[in-house]
Amino acid sequence: MKPARIDDRALPPLFDIGPLWAILWGRRLLVLAFTGAALLLAVLYLAVTSPSYTATASILIDPRDARATNFNNVLPGIGADSAAIASQVFVIESQDLLGTVFDSQKLRNDPEFSSRGLISRVMSLFGGGTPQDAAFKRFQKAVSVEREGLTYVINVSFTSPSPEKAARIANAIVDRYKASLAGERETANDDVNSLLNDRIKGLQKDVSDAERAVEDFKSQHRIVDPTDGGTLQSQLDQLTTQLIAAQGDADKAKDRYNQALAAGTSAAGLAKLSEILSSNAAANLRDDYNQRATELANLETMYGPRHPAIGRLRSELDRINRLMAGEAMRIRQQLKANYDLAVQNAGKLQDKLEALRQQSQDSSLAQVQLRQLDSKAQAARTVLDDFLKRAQETSQLQGVQTSEARTIGAAAPPLQPTWPKPALLLPVSVSLG
Questions:
Q1: What are residue 423's phi and psi, to 5 degrees?
Q2: Rounded to a whole number, what is the largest CA-CA distance in the chain?
Q3: Calpha distance 426→327 (Å, rounded)
Q4: From CA 158, how far away is CA 170, in angstroms rounded?
């Protein structure tokens, strides 16, 4: 059994324009009437509607961090982050920035924004806000800020019945935004500089207190600064050298005193004493004794022991012997005094050395605490130096802050209105009619 074959030419068309055209042609007068009415309404709308002009200014957010110096800025740049660039759209549309432009351009009393329509009057009766707020809201509606795709370009547009006013306000918004970027850096720089200066005062006091604590500790423990006349060890070395010399002097004085004791009081002993301790009196007595002894020996040889002159000479020799004994005693006493003085000096130096050694031991323990205090003072000085350096940098950055935004296309008064557009409204009205 063969399937039935369907002839495509026998099927009716999906859409037959013939009947539709017949209907329209039959009602051609009605169609022409509606078309004429729609066209008339469009012409009337164009006649009564005030044209509005939109001026656009373009700015580029430079992701590079421009610096006038090598100092680090307090507030970094916007950067190349896409979200940060997109956030600038909301910054430009913010009430603070637009409010500043609104006041600086003296638009609060501008009839374009301050005139109140019927709806505004009705809303004000029900607490719809003050006339100034309504004027500012109308101003906000005329502002349009858009990012150009994913680029760093932002277009700022303003719509107004006056093309000159539209261009002027669009440029004013851009200028205010650029000034706000630099102003934010200046404000942040001033705030940080004030904080640094306030903190520096406290740090200077901390450094002064730490250094004073170090000096007081040195004075309390008698720690000598090497730059002020030597260390404690050098004093120990000096005292040790002096003690050795004093002990040597004491030993020499003792030897001389012992030699004086062994010399006796004879003429030979007195001669030895005069060698130990220089004495003119001892030398004269010895010479006088030798002279008298020589004379006595000569007289005894010539006249015998019973001669009267011999007795006189012997008496003279006895007197000289007594004088020599007295001089010998005086020399021994002087040598004894010299020996005692040398021993006393050595003892004093020994006591000083022992005291200095004890001080050295105490100083070794104190040095540990001194190093801790000195480290604390050094750390405070380092922090203070860093703060002083940063404060100097921030003070030099005042007035040289740059803006990351730059104008790449200033707004110019548009030649053609953005609305209404006759080339669009008339064809659309004819089509709808």
A1: -65, -20
A2: 208
A3: 154
A4: 5
CATH of span 52-196+403-432? 3.30.1890
Question: pLDDT by residue (tens digit) across 15-47?
Answer: 567 776 676 666 667 767 666 666 666 566 555
Domain segments of the chain as ranges = 52-196+403-432, 226-393
Residues 356 and 310: beta-carbon distance below 8 Å: no
Q: Of the candidates 249, 150, 176, which has an alpha carbon nearest to the alpha carbon of residue 405?
A: 176
Rounded to 5 degrees, what are φ and ψ at 247? -65, -35
The verdict on pTM exceeding 0.90 is no
Angle at alpha carbon of residue 138, lines to 136 and 139, rounded to 5°: 60
Please write down the HEC assignment for all residues of the chain.
CCCCCCCHHHCCCCCCHHHHHHHHHHCHHHHHHHHHHHHHHHHHHHHHCCCEEEEEEEEEECCCCCCCCCCCCCCCCCCCCHHHHHHHHHHHCCHHHHHHHHHHCCCCCCHHHHCCCHHHHHHHHCCCCCHHHHHHHHHHHCEEEEECCCCCEEEEEEEECCHHHHHHHHHHHHHHHHHHHHHHHHHHHHHHHHHHHHHHHHHHHHHHHHHHHHHHHHHHHCCCCHHHCCCHHHHHHHHHHHHHHHHHHHHHHHHHHHHHHHHCCCHHHHHHHHHHCCCHHHHHHHHHHHHHHHHHHHHHHHHCCCCHHHHHHHHHHHHHHHHHHHHHHHHHHHHHHHHHHHHHHHHHHHHHHHHHHHHHHHHHHHHHHHHHHHHHHHHHHHHHHHHHHHHHHHHHCCCCCCCCEEEEECCCCCCCCCECCHHHHHHHHHHHC
Burial class (CB in 10 A: 0-12, 13-18, 19+), 133: exposed
Partners of 145 in beta bridges: 156
- How far apart CA 182 and CA 405 sit, in angstroms, is 9
The pLDDT, as a whole number, for residue 356 is: 76
pLDDT per position as a tens digit, 278-324: 566 666 666 666 776 777 677 667 766 666 777 777 777 777 667 76
Q: Which two tokens stand for residue 76?
A: 């970094």
CA–CA distance, 216 with 387 (Å, rounded to integer) = 27
Listed in sequence order, the residues at least 6 apart from 432 whose beta carbon sits closer than 8 Å to its beta carbon are 38
Mean pLDDT of 344-365: 78
Joined tokens for residue 99: 């409010």
Amino acid sitting at position 77: G
